[in-house]
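Dear Dr. H.,

I hope your travels went smoothly. While you were away I took the liberty of generating a structure for the chain from your last submission, since the lab meeting agenda had it listed for discussion. I wanted you to have the full record in hand beforehand rather than looking at slides cold. The sequence, exactly as received, is reproduced here:
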Amino acid sequence: MNVHEGCMDEKEQQLIFLVESCQSAVYKTCFFYLNDHALAEDAMQETFLKAYRSLDQFKNKSTAKTWLMRIAINTCKDILKSAWYRHTNHHISLDSLPEQSAWDHQADTLYQRICALPLRERDIIQLYYYQDMTLEEIGKVLHITPSCVSRKLKRARSLLRKILEKEGIYHA
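The corresponding predicted structure, in token form, is as follows:
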């Protein structure tokens, strides 16, 4: 038992549990949206702050991870819409990037193609493949039915396959 655990109220303990169990998933989602480590860190922190403030409103109608993913996605969308973000240069010099292995390059290429997908398809790919969420959980995050998630996932895979085939990266 942590020395400070006895001093914490239930809400603080819930937050600690959420951070410990979902921090990696929330960070990955934020990075996927923002494509910037520092912004992803900020968005992750903001996500947990928002979650802490609204813990009383969490009704356990979904998993905590599903609830946090929705908050994270909304937080990232808010950042992308902000005047500060729109007026900031987000280009990275190629000279500042580290050398990549062939595997890293392939993963980076795939990541770039996923980011080029329309937002809904990108969301579904990210939540399904990168967060290992079920169709039901994704439906709760995106406020759509699991059957709609399934159709959109199929469409996203098809779009991604066409993009990769067109570029000669994937061969059926």
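Two observations you may find useful: The helical segments are 10-34, 37-53, 64-81, 83-86, 102-115, 119-130, 135-142, 146-166. The two ends are 54 Å apart (CA to CA).

With kind regards,
E. W.
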